[in-house]
Amino acid sequence: MNKNDIHKQYEHRTKNVCRAFVKSVTFILFFILPLAFYGQEKQTIQSSETGANSYIQKEDTLINFKFSFYNLDQEFSVTGEGTPIRIQPNFTLKTRFFVNYKFISLALALAPGFLPGNRDSDLKGKTKSFTINLNFYMNHWVQESQFNRTKGFYLSNTSDYKLPGWVEGKDPYIQFPGMKLLVLRGATSYLLNTNFSLKAVRSHTEIQKKSAGSFMPSLIYSFYSINNDDEAGWQSHQNSNNFEGLIALWYMHTFVVHKNWYISGGVAPAVGYSFTKLDTYFGEDKNTEHYNEPIFRLNEQVSIGANFKRFFTGVQLLASQTKESQGNNPITQKNYYTTFQVFAGYRFNAPKFLRKTRH
Fold first, then answer.
1. Residue 199: CA count within 13 A, CB half-sphere
2. Percentage of residues in the chain with pLDDT exceeding 70?
3. Residues 347 and 63: beta-carbon distance below 8 Å
4. Percentage helix, strand, coil, to 5, in the chain?
5. Can you tell me the distance from the alpha carbon of 117 to that of 108, in angstroms, rounded to the nearest whole number?
6. What is the pLDDT of residue 295?
């Protein structure tokens, strides 16, 4: 199978990929949400009467800087009849820098080529990636936003295509150096129990003093585009624009193990709808198709760390799985990512102009 045959197979399968929807999960979510609101609001009212400050230690006069190394195992795959297609970016490790103060969190992530696992560009091609996050954590409301741009991908299962003379680890993988992924993502959430500190496990502008948990309903919305119109040597190419809207129900819990040591975990099933516009170009000809399909996703988060007055550190695992199919059609698309990060940070006194308050 040559390069053009693989690309044609990719086009054929992408056109037929639709989104899976599990009706029973939708029912469960809409059934649980009213119960979750009632139970968590009742717990919040009771805790406010007994003094919620005993659960959370605020660090409003300190600004913290956090640095992390993390791997990002990300894959876009299309499976069905015939050989599957698995496309990945070429990086193993990324770095992320955070600046957090009170309810604001700003993060910048890069994938430097000098890090271990990011150097084999001769075999897998070059990938450039840039991500910025801006999040706001209020008492109940949480607003998260992300911008990501990644360019350069490769076919991770090139060996499945039995290319003549191709030797894994010696010969270059099939590469898509011009393929670009652009992502704009946001999430608006409502934290039901204010005894649980989301800041203590994400921005580290607070410290969880007593074990607590909370439901957190979320509205997730994202736009992403995949563009490979400058791939040299292709007889045709595709561009896709996608919008997704989902409702998720997080449940998160932090266990304070010993004073400032904690273990935190959470899980969130999500259901929603996706809207896709797919443009396929054959020379000067253009074919446009639209897909409007349901989608199902599962997110998980686990953290272990230490949170002291000035210094904090820990490890965190984030994962997400999305499955998309079309009824009884054997073609299925699966997108997943897994991130394991090691982080450390330090809190400094905030500048006086930030600490000034009006009387």
1. 30
2. 71
3. yes
4. 15, 55, 30
5. 20
6. 86
C-beta separation of 89 from 127 below 8 A: yes
Angle at 279 between CA 273 and CA 285, to 5 degrees: 160
Inter-residue contact 20 to 180 (CB < 8 Å):
no
**Segment 317-338 mean pLDDT:** 65
Distances in whole angstroms, Cα of residue 356 to Cα of each of 124, 190, 193? 52, 28, 29
Beta-bridge mates of residue 69: 95, 342
Instruction: Kindly provide the b/e burial profile for residues 330-357, where b requires at least 16 CB atoms within 10 angstroms of the residue's own CB.
Output: ebbbbebeebebebebebeebeeeeeee
Cα separation, 253 vs 55, in Å, equals 13
Residue type, 182: L
Contact assessment for residue 187 and residue 220, using Cβ atoms and an 8 Å cutoff: yes
Query: Which amino acid belongs to residue 1?
Result: M
Residue 127 makes CB contacts below 8 A (sequence gap 6+) with 89, 90, 91, 111, 118, 150, 151, 152, 153
Confidence label for 161 from pLDDT (cuts 50, 70 and 90)? confident
31-64 in b/e burial notation, b at 16+ Cβ within 10 A? eeeeebeeebeebbeebeeeebeebbeebeebbb
Q: Which H or E run includes 11?
A: helix 3-16
Distance between CA 105 and CA 98 in Å, rounded?
Answer: 7
C-alpha of 268 from chain center: 13
Side-chain-facing half-sphere of 255: CA atoms under 13 Å:
7
How far apart (Å, rounded) are the C-alpha atoms in residues 322 and 24? 17
Structural domains of the chain, ranges and CATH numbers in brackets = 3-295+303-355 (2.40.128)
- Residue 102: helix, strand or coil by DSSP? coil
- Cα–Cα dist 195/44, whole Å: 7
Q: Could you give the CA distance from residue 145 to residue 133 in angstroms, rounded to a whole number?
A: 6
Q: Tell me if 71 sits within 8 A of 93, measured CB to CB.
A: yes
